[in-house]
Amino acid sequence: MSSRPGVIVRCAGPAEAQATVLAAQEYGVPLTVRGGGHDWAGRALSDGGLTIDLSGLRRVTVDPETKVAEVAGGATAADLVAATQPFGLTAATGSAGSVGMAGLILGGGYGPLSGRFGLAADNLLSAQVVLADGSVVTADTEREPELFWALRGGGGNFGVVTSMRVRLHARADAAVRPGAVRVGAGRECAGRAG
Questions:
Q1: Can you tell me the distance from the alpha carbon of 51 to that of 157, in angstroms, rounded to the nearest whole number?
Q2: Is the overall model pTM greater than 0.85, yes or no?
C-alpha cells in the first residue's frame, strides 16, 4: 500500500478515539481506523487523512464462567486465542493470528472453525462504538439493536469499535494455538501467523 496518513493518533481508550473523530469532522479530513492493519482493500490508511490507530489496545479479559471475552479494539486473533487457552476455551477467529478481531468481526469473520461455531460476527455479543457525532454507545440486542445488526458483518462504516464482548466455546474437540488452528485429531487447518 502506498497511502500515507497526515496524522496517526494512537488511542489509549474510547475518549481519545472520540476526540479524534470529532477533530476529523471539525477539520474536514478523511478518517480511517487501524486495528490489526489487515484490511485487504487498504482502508485502514488514507493519503493525508487522520488515522485512529487502535493497535495498542490489545487487552483481552476472559470470564470462563460465562464463556465471554472482553476484547479491546486492537486485539488480534492470536491475543484472543492465547487468553482463552488456559481456560480450555476458544473463539471463532480467522486463520491468521495477526488479524485484528474487530476488523474480522466487522467483515463477517470466516475462519476454520466457522462450520462448528459460526462466523466471528455470529459470536459478537456487544460492542462499544464511537459514532460519527462523537457519542459512545454500546450496541447489543437491546441497546442500539440496528447498529448491532449492522456491525455483525457490515464492515467498518458504522463507527469506531473500541471494545467488544464475544462468545467463547469449550475446546473439547478443537485445539487452538496462536497462529494455527487444529481441529479434531490434530489435522492442521490454518497456517502460521506472521
A1: 14
A2: no
